[in-house]
Amino acid sequence: MKIHTNSIRKQIGNINKSYYDLITHEIGDTNLTVPQVLVCRCIKDEPQMVSSISETVKLANSTVSSIIDRLEKNGYVTRIRDSKDRRIVWVAGTEKLTQLRKKMPVLEESFFEILFEDLDEESVEQIYRSLELLANHMMKKVAEYKKE
Amino acid sequence: MKIHTNSIRKQIGNINKSYYDLITHEIGDTNLTVPQVLVCRCIKDEPQMVSSISETVKLANSTVSSIIDRLEKNGYVTRIRDSKDRRIVWVAGTEKLTQLRKKMPVLEESFFEILFEDLDEESVEQIYRSLELLANHMMKKVAEYKKE
Question: Which residue spans adopt a coiled-coil conformation according to this UniProt entry (chains A, B) (predicted)?
Answer without folding.
Answer: none
